Amino acid sequence: MKTEFTGIHHTAFATHDIELTVKFWRDLLGMRLVYAYGSPGYRQYFFLVSGNNRISFFEWHDVEPVRPRRHGDPVKGSFIFDHIAIGVADKNALGEIMSRLDAAGFHCSDIIDHGCFLSIYSYDPNGIPIEFSCEVPGHDLFWNPVMKDLAATSGFLTEPNPVPGQWPKPEPVSEEERIIVPGEGKDFFPEIPDRTPQSTQTSAAEGAMQVHDVMHRGVYTTTENDTIRSVAETIASEKISGLPVVDDNNRLVGVISEKDILKALLPGYTQFLDDPAQALDFQAMESSYGGVLQKSVGELMSPSVISIEIDAPVMKAAAQMDLHGFRRIPVVDQDRRLAGIISLSDIHQAIFVRELEDAPDR
């Protein structure tokens, strides 16, 4: 089962001067300080980079700034970190950061063109090597990964997608085993009560239609070990756009859609990058479809699934679909076992029928 990552939650560095570090990251670069806590001998500050990605610093009084070295220069002996690269919107943003660093007396390189992205290089007051990078329009490594490792001895090493079977299959961790213990900073935050207590849910949903009243129960499903060919056959014969993926206990673990299958054709695009004349060989993309059919569902499925509880109000399901741009979502019970599927059409038809029944004769 694939894991859906949301970004780098935070990186953690160390400084002997938290005040100078705050002045650099917050006041010079403009990153908002979102969390600061400490006690005698222990302090940590978090700066927001973007979205929910942060960079943090411990204050250790005996630590010393590292000696400057060029980003990417090889070293001998024990080593764990080279540099941190922070993304920015475009080349104009790089120029803005260059001007700030120059004005504050920090070394900054010229803009370096790496082909698919542009970068500038500098150092923070602690000697940490920093890179600021922006993408070059037209070079999208998400859709078109580029593999140019001349030292690679096999295609396995440069396969863009996760290769299954390299590690033992993990066993699910039960709720009882997910033990949470208090850590540093826990005392600074009050316990957050359940935002939707049972009594509120009951009163708010009283009289409202629930998902189990209108959902479809006879749902076609697949498993992680099934082939994409079997999924494609079901999608074509039943005229549907995708299938829920369940485990041996019928628990929902993902979803596989036509979009997921077609997306798998696109990485093959990069094999033509050496020949610009064939760079848009869509016929070749189509011809790779046979290989995709041999893959397993677990290789291509989306593991992060938006679902709805079987006893939820139908309008909550509608809100979920509207929020995420879906027309249908799986329905699960309290143990995440698949119970059915509900669509916007199901909800609208049920509300419309009830309105007709409740409306006075005209």
Automatic annotation (TrEMBL):
Keywords: CBS domain
PANTHER family attached to this UniProt entry: CBS DOMAIN-CONTAINING PROTEIN, CBS DOMAIN-CONTAINING PROTEIN CBSX3, MITOCHONDRIAL
The protein, known as: Hypoxic response protein 1
CDD domains linked: CBS_pair_BON_assoc, VOC
Domain VOC, residue spans: 7-135
SUPFAM superfamilies (UniProt xref): CBS-domain pair, Glyoxalase/Bleomycin resistance protein/Dihydroxybiphenyl dioxygenase
Pfam families linked to this entry: CBS, Glyoxalase
Species name: Candidatus Thiodiazotropha endolucinida
SMART domains in alphabetical order: CBS
Highest taxon of source: Bacteria
Positions of the CBS domain: 215-272, 301-359
Annotated InterPro entries: CBS_dom, CBS_dom_sf, Diverse_CBS-Domain, Glyas_Bleomycin-R_OHBP_Dase, Glyas_Fos-R_dOase_dom, VOC_core
Gene behind the chain: hrp1_1
